[in-house]
Amino acid sequence: MHLLGGWLDATFALEIGGMLKKRLLAGALQMDIESVKQQGVGQLLGRVMESQALESLALNGGFSVFIAVIELVFASWILAVGAGGQLHLLLLLIWIMLTIGLCLHYFQRLRKWTLMRLDMTHDLVERMVGHRTRLAQESVNRRTIEEDQTLQDYLITAKESDDSIIPIMGALSRGWLVIGVLGLAPSFISGSTSETKMAISLGGILLASRALSGVATGFSALARSGIAWTQVSSLFYAAERKPAKEPFLTSTMIAGKSVDDHENKLIDASDLVFRYRAEGEPVLRGINLSIFQGERILLEGSSGGGKSTLASMLVGLRTPDSGLLLLNGLDSFTLGESWHRLATEAPQFHENHILTATLAFNLLMGRNWPASNGDLDEAKTLCIELGLSELLERMPSGLMQRVGETGWQLSHGERSRIFLARALLQNTQLTILDESFAALDPESLKKCLCSAFKRAKTLIVIAHP
Length: 465
Known about the structure:
By secondary structure, the chain is of the alpha/beta class. The protein has 17 helices and nine strands. The protein is about 65% helix and about 10% strand.
């Protein structure tokens, strides 16, 4: 039985492990944008760590406990026909109940320690990202006291978890050997049983001890995998969501539907309503909007008024709860993912990123890759228009220079202009710039505005009054 369990463990571990990774990856890619935004980088990193624990521990622990349960059933049958009889069965039942209680206690302590460890991972990543802010703004004493207290609480919780596993791993199996032998004392003292039954009872005691040892080892792995499941289950179930619908029209048909006529509506919105949570108040209510091809629109409003939310709906990143939204006369069910080929935006600075790759890759994300010579030439020309010629001259590899967190460090203004160039290079029917000029000096602002007016077919600029 152990040989069969080992073979099944190795076989299933490879197959199910591969399927689990694919499923979790599919779920991660299909998670709702709002649920992702509500989690920190450290929390997402913790989920990745826990997914590895789930894969490596669930099968091992599951097979170990399954085999141990079968062995306990056989041990109970053997003990029933041995010298101890019903007394041995009662003692084994009591010991099993004690085992369950110890396992539940360990599970609670382990869960508390794991959650604290994941919280510390999140805090560590957040403190690393905000290190310069903390150095400049936070009191040294406050920073030290908080970190020391967190570490002290973690050490206490870790010790409690370690203490709760000691009885399971160290005393569960050996304690049963003592109890089982003591259960033979009445029959041995009275001399009322045969040597054969005495040997049968000893065999049952040893088999039950082996099974309890398997339970201790397997449950430890199962408990960790169960806690890991609570962290990654949302990724697992997110994969059940239906993939994005294929466009009703082919790409060729969509591309052939021209909107060059300035009399045609590019955006037609009627009674749009949007809320971030189903039970929350609408962020946008009763929005009616018509945008014609070639228009230049300035959208102003106070912070928190819903400007960025409206922009994300116009480019297809969010779906309105009710109302009608048409792009080029077609709705989202007709366009499918092709919506993004017709509309794009440069999001606000805190939601836009320079990926760790070449500058050319970051500029031409909206086009085919590897980039053609024509695409590279156009990207370079646009960078010069936006005042980035000095940056290209400073970088040894030009457009092929690696940028990002582990590459060439870009200033705030340089990043802003690269975000703008990225949006303009997509060459879509509608381009939305969400506070893209906030970090620019007047001269750079003039250059960027001129380039946006010249290159964007239809332009919406979002700014504060």
